[in-house]
Request: fold
Amino acid sequence: MQLLFTENETNHEKLFPGTKNESPYVKDGINDYVIHGAQQAVNPKNQGTKAAALYQLVVGAGETSEVRLRLTKKSEEAMTALFGKDFETVFEKRVGEADAFYASITPHSASADEANVMRQALSGMLWSKQFFFFDGDNWLDEHNSNPLHSGYHNARNSEWYHMLNMDIISMPDKWEYPWYAAWDLAFHTLPLSIVDPDFAKNQMELMLRGLYLHPNGQMPAYEWNFSDVNPPVHAWATLFLHRSEMTLRGEADVNFLRSTFNKLLINFTWWVNRKDRFGKNVFEGGFLGLDNIGIFDRSAPLPTGGNLEQADGTAWMALFSQNMLNLASELTVHDSSYDEMIVKFAQHFLFIARAMNKPGNDGMWDEEDGFYYDLLRLPDGSAVRLKVRSLVGLLPLCATSIVEKVQRDRIPEAMATIREFERRMPELLETIHATGEGKFGVNERGILALVNEDRLRKILSKMLDENEFLGPHGIRSISKFHQEHPYVMHVEGQEFRVDYLPAESDTGMFGGNSNWRGPVWMPINIMLVRALQQYYLYYGDKFQVECPTGSGNMMNLFEVSKEISHRLISTYTRGANGKRPVYGGTEKFQNDPNWRDLILFYEYYHGDNGAGLGASHQTGWSGVVAKLIQIFGQVDAEQLLKDGIKTTFVKDKKVTGKKKRTVKKITEEII
Reply:
């Protein structure tokens, strides 16, 4: 065995010709030593900030070689005892503990294959934790791009000189993307909450800390451009974590709630001030994580001039308003000063809903198509709907939240103010989903929803059509309708188009291979499953639709959410042919007994066959499949409809962290 040492520094001479390295021993020196025999690439003094142990073994066909390692400060003589019988005993004990732990969190109804998928998704989440260090001030100094110094040159992240990241963070993919991504991280917290709820809360707080959050309130996106805009899903994830903790421990972490709410308030204000360009309650935001989904690059100047009023950005802000309202409702139990925030966010939701559902030719809703579209606002003030059937038009469904009777009863003053506000401005209620006195749903539930019943049916008819959005393994990001009917626009002799592309992208726009023009992406599917269950809590069994569209098979919305979840889960489990769709035609992973039960969780999935695409270890947000397996293994429609979320708001002194979770308690976590 040989120890190899280098510095953990980039090889600037190789990447940027003409630039000198600070040290001759850079991070890829270990690779050059092992692969190319470059003796001078590692430090002969055996010191540095990066090290590797080099073992040379010859392993014959069918043979096994084993290397045993332990980190210790003990002398070489004392180390011999560390590899005796106790070594095996420790491993056996740890394996037994792990088996018992995963058995305790896996639904009894889950098949052995589903349990295997769930366990590997969760272990992948834990494996993806990594220390991340970024000193913005120092990095910008090194690149002569620090605005605190004279003569600087503007560069990426120049405005983030306040940044100091020095934390263990859940990464999207430690192999290919060993950096954090803000909206990915929000989805990571869902499966992490199953195995380590405290770490999940820590990750949620991280992006809101003063050394991360920009002084203007923007949340950092990712290290190659912190100023990109990601969807504001962090209030929703905070609410999810709060309700999960109520389930596990029977009481709220008020400090966590208060801290995250107050900082999210700063972020919400940034959105309102920076991304509602004309104060119309319609939002832009740019590509918003949906790489290459539109006909134009939504984060660049438009070739037509003018600006985009985005259906997805506006829907995200409507959901953000609902989540902040709910968080304020939780906090007002402990501090009545949050009562006014409930009213304020109710107003925000109503204003945004009115703007988004504006009737007529210059609104986002297209009555003829029964779908929402981005609106291209031209320099002369006229408007054109960009009729791309994509997730952009499905996301308004996600801005849906149930209001239980117990929630209303505990905030009488806020409810009275909201009702008076609605009485004064009844036009604000004309296009949203009906709710309020005389219009309550099951168990007197109210509902805050952008999409009313008529529009819901029209959107679902497309979303559940297997010739459009409903794929064999989830909801596609663009309708298959565009395979035969691409959307094309000509601007000054240049053609812009969107086709249905089930696998790799044919454009380098925002991400190249990160293709949102047809494949299935797990995070948006999760949001749509949640939305369907919110509607189910309101309607119960009386609202039914064909699923799939045209099949004659009628389902309530819980059954629809379960069907979509089943399709998502089946991406990873063996089908009737014994193969896992995630591995497509990769015979080694499909048939080799040493590989076929080891699951990779990809960045996204083929829209027609479920094969994994993009980064191959993106357990991150694809890891939320573990939460789907857990929820649908423990919750049935009858129990969900009966209990809803009311138990979340009842303080039960008898509940402790050690008490077993019941089906009734699990239902709270899907909200």
Remarks:
- The longest strand covers residues 129-135.
- Residues 646-671 have pLDDT under 50 and may be disordered.
